[in-house]
Amino acid sequence: MIGKVHPQTAPARTVLEKEGFRYLNYIDIFDGGPTLECDIDRVRAIRKSRLVTTEAGETSPGDWPLCLVANEQYHQFRALLVHADPDGDTLTLSARELDMLKCHAGDQCAWCA
């Protein structure tokens, strides 16, 4: 049906709408589904993100929430969900996590709780 999401993609639409995206009566030319749009400054993950310096080590997540972490590399962009202290000034990542992000200890990463 034109302008409607498939039931299997409804959860994705919900996530995008929680991030600030809205349906503005445009449809995708390939599948007829709705396109969701928003201004960059309205995306929650961008508004709430901050830059932190990474350090190598093993974390003890305890009750820390999952946070979205992204490198700052335009051509090799990577992002992960990691348990992290939302109030910390640095972000401790395992060697595996640093490798997956294509980062090194001391690099800056953007993250959002």
From TrEMBL:
It is an enzyme of class 2 (transferase). Pfam families: AstA. GO terms for molecular function: arginine N-succinyltransferase activity. Its EC number is 2.3.1.109. Keywords: Acyltransferase, Arginine metabolism, Transferase. This is Arginine N-succinyltransferase. GO terms for biological process: L-arginine catabolic process.
